[in-house]
Structure formats: structure tokens, C-alpha cells
Amino acid sequence: MNVRERSQMLERQTLSPCACLSEQSKGRLYPLEQCPVRTCFQRDIDRIVHSKAFRRLKHKTQVFLQPEGDHYRTRMTHTLEVARIARTIARGLRLNEDLTEAAALGHDLGHTPFGHAGERLLHKIMPGGFHHNIQSLRVADRLENGGDGLNLTYEVRRGILCHTGEERAETLEGQIIRLADQIAYINHDIDDATRGGIICPLDIPLAVLQVLGFDHSSRINTLTVDAIAASEGKKEITQSPAARDAMRTLREFMFESVYRNPVAKAEEGKAQDILLRLFDYYRKDPDKLPADFQDIREREGTERAVCDYIAGMTDQYAVDKYGEAFIPMAWSVK
Fold first, then answer.
1. How many angstroms separate the CA atoms of 324 and 63, rounded?
2. pLDDT tens digits, 124-162
3. What is the DSSP code (8-state) at residue 112?
4. What is the distance between the alpha carbons of residues 329 and 116, in angstroms, rounded to a whole number?
5. Which of 107, 158, 232, 287 is the most buried (most CB within 10 A)?
6. How far, in Å, CA of 232 to CA of 253, rounded?
């Protein structure tokens, strides 16, 4: 019995009957010899963490565009917080923590530069629209590893795709990602908005605080524990009515006070203009696209290649490319 087989045996012995066992995975897009040490879901974690798309998350906006200060969230810190919340819920329910973590780490691989402002812009101009969850799966399936993709398991891929939108993941582990994502972003966005002076803690509706808690840690703990208690013995990941209502009210408050706040979002128009002009620039002259995207251009069309390129940019890389394309370089005589 090798290490992987021992891990699979432990899964059979310890996990809930509702859990997705790694040995029962529906497999990958392309056959792959099994690792003697890691289960298929552990292997997916490593494939995601070592990908270029994952590394770029540290330079992508979460909510605030290029904030001054070291403590604001980025898309990567958001991803790590989602992974920790999701894994805690999975452990509490005796579900497969490795599957849960892999889907959590991959759920935002396809997010655009400049946060949801970038996503809205690409959705507006891209034929057929643009959704970051679909793009995240595209990154995993098509764009990473020189066009070969990461070749992830079916269950992880579904967790990534279904973390938002109308479709629901078949596994409970995949369903956890949707709730963990919401728990993470609502609460850390409160933290960042408070740090940025957009809101103060007393602005949060008192009825919400009385249910969820009066500080960041308490609210995350309350929602995480509630998800475990409400989902125990059920075939879906859910919340208690009290927690669900409080979370809905909190989300409405955040949209009104932060996500649509003109102070917090003052630079979004400029960011969208950068991406719009870059899109037109590369669409008109696609030979300037990097070599990695020329195959996509030939097989799937210029607009698809341009969209993939821009969606993968970090905030600063997009600014730099805009500067190269539209701002005159300094001229000197040697």
C-alpha cells in the first residue's frame, strides 16, 4: 500500500457518507498516471498553486483600486481566506477537505484586472458576455501550461465553475465554495472599507451585528459555525434562516455603502477606459498579441484571444501596456 492508497483508505474510514472520495472522482479531461503519494485532489491543489494564473492574483484588485497601504486585500488574499473558511466548513461536516481547498484556490483564477469593474467592462464588449467563473475554468482547462491547461479533476472544475451563477456543484464540497466566497468577501470588504474611511463599524445595521457579531472575527466565526450546524446531515450546504437573513441584509448594506460608493469607486471609470482602449488596440492589430495567444486567435478568433490576454493581466501590467500603446516614450539623442 503506497501513501496515496493509505490516504484513500483513511477517507473511506473517516469521511461522511455524503463526502466525495478521491478514489471515486470522475477523472480528468485527459488520462494521467496516478501519483503514488498524493490523491487526485491533493494533486489539483499543487497544480493550481504552482500555476502562473494563481501567482498573478497577488497583483489583482479585490475592491479598492491600487490602495495606498499594505493591509488591503488583493485577489490572492481573498482566495486564501475563502480556502480557509471553506476547509473549516468541510472539516466540520467530515467532507473532503482537499477537494474543497482545490476548488477554493482555483475559483478566481480567471478574474480580471481592476476587480469587478474589469469584469463588467469585458462583459459589455465581449460577444456572448464575460463571467469570471467561466473564465476561471477556461484558465484551468485551456490557458495555463502553454495551452494544455491544468487538467484538473471533474469535481474541482465544477467547484470552480459553480461558485457563482445559476449552476450548482454536484458535490457538497463544491457547494461550500459559493458560501465561503460570500462569507469571506463581505466581511473582509467591511474591514477594508473601514480602514479606508468609507464606513465606520457603527454604520453596520444593529440587527445584523446582534446576529452575526460586532467584529470581523466574530462574524466569520458565526457564519462558519452556522453553515456547519445548518448543513449537518443534509444533502446541500445551507444556512439557518437567521444567518441567511442577516447576511443578505449585510450584503445589501455593502452594496449601498461601499460597492456603489462614489469615493471608493472614483477611479473605476479610468480603469475601464484602460481596458476598453487596450481591447480595441489588440483587436485592430492582433499581431501584437504575445505568441501564447496567437494559437487562440487562429482557432477561436481575435476577440477571444484579446479577451483572454486582457483578463489575465494584473492591474499594473494593464497600466504598463496602456502606457506602451498610448503614451509617447521619452525621446533622447545619444
1. 26
2. 999 999 999 999 999 999 999 999 999 999 999 999 999
3. P
4. 31
5. 107
6. 29
56, 126, 139, 285, 297 from 303: Cα distances, Å: 22, 7, 16, 11, 8
Segment (H or E) for 210: helix 206-212
Give me the amino acid identity at 307.
C
Burial 116-141 (b: 16+ CB within 10 A, else e): bbbbbbbeebbeeebbbbbbbbbbbb
CA torsion 104→109→114→117, rounded to 10°?
A: -80
Distances (CA, A) of 54 to 144, 158, 210: 10, 18, 37
Let me know: does 94 contact 177? Beta carbons within 8 Å.
Answer: no
The answer to whether residues 180 and 82 touch, using CB atoms and an 8 Å cutoff, is yes
Unique residue bearing C-alpha cell 480528468: 28
User: What local confidence, expressed as pLDDT, does residue 96 receive?
Assistant: 98
**Cell digits for 199?**
464606513
Residues 268-292 have pLDDT tens digits of 999 999 999 999 999 999 999 999 9
What is the value of pTM for the model shown?
Answer: 0.95
Q: What's the average model confidence in pLDDT over 32-36?
A: 97
Cα gap 206→175, rounded to integer Å: 30
Nine-digit cell at 286? Answer: 492582433
Helix, strand, coil percentages (3-state) for the chain, rounded to 5, are: 65, 0, 35
C-alpha cell at 228: 456547519
Q: Quick one: pLDDT band at residue 324, thresholds 50, 70, 90?
A: very high
DSSP 135-159: HHHHIIIIITGGGT----BHHHHHH
